[in-house]
Structures are given as structure tokens and as C-alpha cells.
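for the writeup, i need someone to sanity check this before i put it in the appendix. the sequnce is what the collaborator sent (i think, or maybe the updated version? ugh). structure was predicted straight from it, no edits. if anything looks off just tell me and ill rerun, i have time this weekend
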Amino acid sequence: MILAAYKSNMVVSKFKLFFALGMLLCATPLFSQKAYRNQELSITTENDVYLLIRRDRYYSNGILFNYRFTKGEVSNSLDSSTIASPKKIFQFDLAQKFFTPEGITLSNPDEFDRPYAGLLVGGASVSLFPKPDKKISYGAELGVIGEISGGEAFQKWYHRFAGFLPPEGWEFQIRNEVFLNLKAEINKQFTLLPRTIDVVTHSKVSLGTSLLNTQQGFDVRFGKLQNIDRSAFVNSLIGRGSERFVGHNYFFFGYGLEYVVHNTLIGGSIWNIESPHTEELNHLVRHWRIGWAANSETATFKMTYYHLSEEVVGAKKHAYIGLELQLRFRPSKKRSQ
């Protein structure tokens, strides 16, 4: 409780700065005209302290970087439904996340309600848009869990720097491990009121050494909408059709069910790498979220509230906020000539 009170003062400033920057970039065309854009950079920060309440637990912090690009496409006025080959977007990811129990000042692991765990992961994926209302993506991620992820070092440094109370239980964290996961997702858009209200479903699966799960859910969007092959909702505002950008801002509400077979961050390694503290996971987890997105030709800002049911047997529900900023760029002069 004391930690969250101290932490909130600094995080409020960070929250306001990120929000103001995102809104400024989305409201300003950056002195550009409508143009074909084939690259996108994004940064996402996730933290429960953005809720501005005195609570800090479970998914303590996450920072994610993404680079997306198209390859072999040229600017044209055709959409995904009128050409032979589907729109294709490539993506590279880098993320660090770490997780703690609710009471980070506790030193007895018998009192923890979730293991300490750090995660550092890189990934690559491809997204295909065979139709304007359908997306298919698949990819792989390779990463490390444990002390070598840097989660412990980052949290301890950050708490010293900011004057927060130090976490006491990292010596009981999930042990070092390299992991490989394969993942796939299908999104389908169903229009209820053209350009105003729709439903976007998602079907996800992850098969790997650190995570084995499946998830099914949907989001209801309302506002000024576009097809999902030209929408920041599924990160598709680059490539074919980007030179015909139409501004679209919207709200969304989503719900989903996840079935988890294995999660190393909770139950420990499948390779019998013994960790000093693990917990029993709940196999069925409910997710819901509510958010808002604003888009300009060059930038997107998203703010999303996430709520999860109990991931660990005997633990509590959890909520956090994600803030994402996307920036889009034209092809380099050499490539465009």
C-alpha cells in the first residue's frame, strides 16, 4: 500500500505526458499530405498504477516495442477484395514484462500469492488480409524467463531511483529458462451499422514451451470506423490503401475466455527446472477490456483498460491500463524512386 502511494505520484506525471504526446501527434498532421506509408513503429506501456489507485500487484510492468512494414507492395487504389494477392504486413516485436505477488515487501514465499517472474521476448509474425473484413496472423517468439530477463534488475533499479520500497522476494523467482512459442490468430469483422458499429471476433492459440493456451473473444466497436484491413485496431494502417487514409476514432468494449494448459510464469518450467516458488494456475480465465483510439495519417494513440479474472488459484482479480503510440512513415527515397 505504501509503495503504491509513493509510486502513483511519479506515474501520474508519466501518464499525463504519454497521453498528451499521443493526443498531440494524432491531432496534428505533422505538416504532411496523404501519402503511401509502409512502415510503423509503436511503443506500449502497461501498468496497474495507471489506474491511479493504491494497488500494485501481479502484472507489475510491461514495455513493448513493435516494428511493422510491408514488402513488395506499391501505392495503388485497389483494396484487398479486388486484387489477387492479399495485403501482407510483417512485424518484429521486443518486450519486457515482470510479475510480482501482491505484497512485495514480504520475504516469506509461503505468503506470496503469485511467483516473481521476469520475461524478455522477441518475436516475428506475418499478418494477411484476404478480405477487407478478415485478418489471419501467425508467428513465433523466442525469449528468456528468469534473472537473465532483466526483470529483477530493472524493478530494483527503478525502485531505488524513484525512492520506492524495495521488493524483497526476487530470490524466489522462476528460474532461468529459454523458451519458444508459436502463435496464430484469426480476426473477423461483422458490420452492424456501416462505418459506425461493428463486432470484431478474435480466435487465438499459443503452442510453446512457456505458454500453451487458446482464447476466443469479441470486441464491439462504435464511432467512426473502417474495415479492419485499414484500421489501427488490428495494426493495418500501413501498406495498401494507406494513401487513401480516412480519419477514424472509436471506442470499443471486449470480452473473452482463455483456457490455459500451461504458463511457466505461474506454474514453473515444463522441463523440471525447479523453481523455489510456483503456484497452481486457474485453467479458465475471463478477460474484458474497454478502450478508445484516435488516429491521424501519421499516428495512432490507444488507451485500454484490461480486467482479468483470477489467473492463480487463491489469488485475486487484476486490472491494468495500456497506453500505445504508433508512428507511421513513408518509404525511403531510394526505395520510392
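Helices lie at 2-27, 151-162, 264-267, 333-336. Residues 1-7 have pLDDT under 50 and may be disordered.
thx in advance!!
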